[in-house]
UniProtKB/TrEMBL annotation:
Residue spans crossing the bilayer: 20-47, 53-75
Source species: Mobilicoccus caccae
Keyword annotations of the record: Membrane, Transmembrane, Transmembrane helix
Protein name: Uncharacterized protein
Lineage, broadest ranks: Bacteria, Bacillati, Actinomycetota, Actinomycetes, Micrococcales
Length: 94
């Protein structure tokens, strides 16, 4: 918190927000590895699921893995941003 020339406290939103567009781009090009930007747990789960599926289907599963990663990555980024917004609002911001 800092104060302005009026003496009123001003809250600064220092919590980093996750870019949903960046999440979608990373997961589109990197698949499960792109999910590390928004969710480490989700990335590890998708890697554990993806590797056997890719081996069993000789890579054909990539067509379903990438959209699943994109949805999960964007959803977890949105949840992160909403959680940060609620914390900031509870402290008197927004």
């Amino acid at each position: 918190m800092t104060s302005t020339h009026t003496g009123r406290p001003v809250l600064i939103d220092a919590a980093p927000r996750k870019s949903l567009v960046l999440s979608l781009v990373l997961t589109f090009f990197l698949g499960p590895f792109g999910m590390f930007y928004t969710t480490i747990f989700g990335a590890l789960v998708m890697l554990a699921v993806s590797v056997p599926l890719l081996i069993l289907t000789l890579g054909a599963a990539w067509a379903g893995i990438v959209p699943a990663c994109m949805i999960w990555g964007a959803w977890s980024g949105h949840r992160h941003n909403e959680r940060q917004r609620r914390i900031y609002a509870a402290r008197g911001g927004w």
